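With this grant's support, we have settled on a layout for protein records. An illustrative entry appears below exactly as we store it:
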Amino acid sequence: QVQLIESGGGLVQAGGSLRLSCAASGRTLLRYYVGWFRQAPGKEREFVAAIHYNTVSTYYTNSMKGRFTISRDSATVYLDMNNLKPEDTAVYLCAADSSYYGSESQYSNWGQGTQVTVSS
């Protein structure tokens, strides 16, 4: 089990930017595939992006490609979000798995999430 900790959420105006971070407590994420998901009130959890442990391969939901960028170093996975819209308001969660890489909720380790609120 890997304990994941997200940070970087907050309140931002439409058009603004935020950088979310996902780190593992007491260990690195070096050999893990990591994904970002989001869940808005009353809606199902939605895949945002994922990154391979090789740091090169990435995978995005089409609607977010171009505004969101996932990246990583040995310790942390980042989600840079630009041109934020009110509909991006959600709790953003990171997830990690040593063998699964994709857009489904099959990751075995999940963080508690960080709230992102975009005001109009």
